[in-house]
């Protein structure tokens, strides 16, 4: 997840808040309104309104406990009818400042907020579909709509993505309502309605909010709304308006004909563009017709004014015409034709082949490619933040490491004993600080700042495979860069190059194409952005109030214009390709359908156009032979979308290219970030890691956006107690059983619960195994202590628990179920205690993402995983460190004992802190191991026979089903293997 990766704007964030975002904090400071009184509640009390329409109960009871007080007797206090669809109950809180509450129907059916209870404050409080807000939903009901002395307000949330709306208002000469105001009623799709009594006033001041702190106050000016009926849409008040929800006069007028249709060919692809057509209501799509070639006429629906046509025949002339279509289906005449002639098909680079073996056998080493090892200094780039960040002073450009350096240091990773390398995203990035790879711009191109002659991405994959090592590519389906996605949609922003802004927006150069590496001659920059601004309103602009001053100023005092900065609510990013809202609730539905940050433009992943773009892009890397995908921000895409579209597409492509066995072992593991210690993320199954390992349990609507909402509602309604369970990770006594993967989604997970608890290995062990019954198969969990994002307990620093604690953590990870994973440099406690990421506000050299290459210089020869033949220079010193020696032996032991790689486990009949038994049985292999980490253990009911310890070589003969092991000491362990090979490797600082 990238929300902690803020990218510094080229002006103060505070200055933008008032002008760029569509929903700035209101200037009337609603929390400080002193003359507003809570509706229907007095000081020391709370009036709780509960929405009845969802549950359709006959009776409603409020069961509550004031903070610090005792609960009412079940079922609680019966609630009274308040107004249509609402019941209420006023509670005397005494000196308490809030209450815990649940609701029920008096007959045993409860709403307890998914097991968490509702935490309510004072005043008027609404609880609707699990969302708590503060308003009186019944205020103003019963008023004659639209008559003198009242105002009926319709508010549009079509571009906001809000699920509730409140009206906070002040009749002229009167007082403001209590924040957040009164709840509005759903009128029709995209519209909310409220009628308020104005008394003798002729108008009111108003602001709107979603009940969760997001406001629309007309860019700080509030709205002035007269009596009668008014609409408020896109910052515009229309007085005396018609009811926007009333039946509309049928639209029979066709759009205008699209003009200036142009077609240009590159190799066997053609890009077609045209000017936006006009319509009395609005154009909803275009129909592009292609003729020519041997495949006949093709008609394609397109929602933007650009179409990329690929995979065409060589040296063939094609003709394209375009029609415009409105929402009513009225279609314009066809445009004039535009012709383009294709060239030769580009040469296809030689592809690799995935190794195709069980991923559980391969410990993972995670590198940020740009920060690992610099093999080619000619592709180093510092970007626009090079000086500001302090990187220039350290001669440390953000893009420093590359594929050439990684190829040269694969033997170092092999020397540690790792056989899989997880690398950060490789696609072409674009932002002011994009070395990490999570700001994808062209998903079909590899970032040129990572490649060199003879060291392309394909070369890296092939070199790793030649050493028996896998490449896991970090991939992003959730978002693009702030500048959109090349080939899908790229916004043109307002950036007048006057004396104020010429320092930031470069002079346009139509003959130059950004690739991150090449220096544009006019600006002298490789991070040129002249293609991203326009001094005249762009053709087909959808951004509201384009080019108008917001009234805000930058930190330098420069005028800020609307549409100058990425914003989901401004219309800058069309909803066909991008979601239209900011996240307000990280455990709410909006976390799957709104933007994380302005640098992470959130794809509309339920759109077919977006799905095709991403599937096509990642097919390219599958074809190159990568061995798996680590999926970034997986939780921010609905599971049903993964299960319907992206995961099947991965399986189908791998099967098509490399066969069913390769597809079975193509390793997909998702980042479902849950930064809590409970089994289910704050009670929300839709936001819990294990949830993503399962297929869907029922059919949903054919439309993906509708299906996503249906799935979210259904599964949260099922709650945590009615989710699938699995025994795939567990032994049946001492017996291994064939796992059942019939309900497996295709996505494995990073073990977030163990990660969050690795400040102490015992906590990580206890929490990890507590979740395993709800994971489809936890033996595939990716387990790490810290990463490029967080340390344990959501720490923002790299792990600093000490060498002994690191050794203990590693001993657990390398023997317990799951796939052990290490973030680069942790083998020498690199940058321990340092802030992992601070964006461009401090030098990278002072962070957990510092350059590692200085520790890797010198010559190195290896003869196998964890086996070094010779080393000199700095890399020899690195390999001599105690944790490195510990890792090498752990990897040797794990490779020699199949039970530690692919085995199921059990703690039945096992006493001890971190003690367990594991077994794997298949064909002629039967591997049974007894493991204890740091502490003593006793095993009862185990098979009789000869057990040999892989650490010491100690031999025990068991004839009574019992074996006891003395405590080996912190970081040390014992691995007694039935009929095992005996001691593996040589004693080191911890394993002895």
From TrEMBL:
Q: Which residue ranges does the record assign to the Fibronectin type-III domain?
A: 257-345
Instruction: Give the domain of life.
Output: Bacteria
Tell me which SUPFAM superfamilies the record gives: (Trans)glycosidases (SSF51445), Fibronectin type III (SSF49265), Glycosyl hydrolase domain (SSF51011)
**In which residue ranges is the amino acid composition biased (Low complexity)?**
336-351
Keywords associated with the record: Carbohydrate metabolism, Glycosidase, Hydrolase, Metal-binding, Polysaccharide degradation, Signal
What Gene3D superfamilies does this protein map onto? Glycosidases (3.20.20.80), Immunoglobulins (2.60.40.10)
Against InterPro entries, the record matches this protein to: CBM25 (IPR005085), FN3_dom (IPR003961), FN3_sf (IPR036116), GH (IPR017853), GH13_cat_dom (IPR006047), Ig-like_fold (IPR013783)
GO biological-process terms attached to the record: polysaccharide catabolic process
Name the source organism.
Streptomyces poonensis
Q: Name one GO molecular function term.
A: starch binding
Designated name of the protein: Alpha-amylase
Region (Disordered) location? 336-360
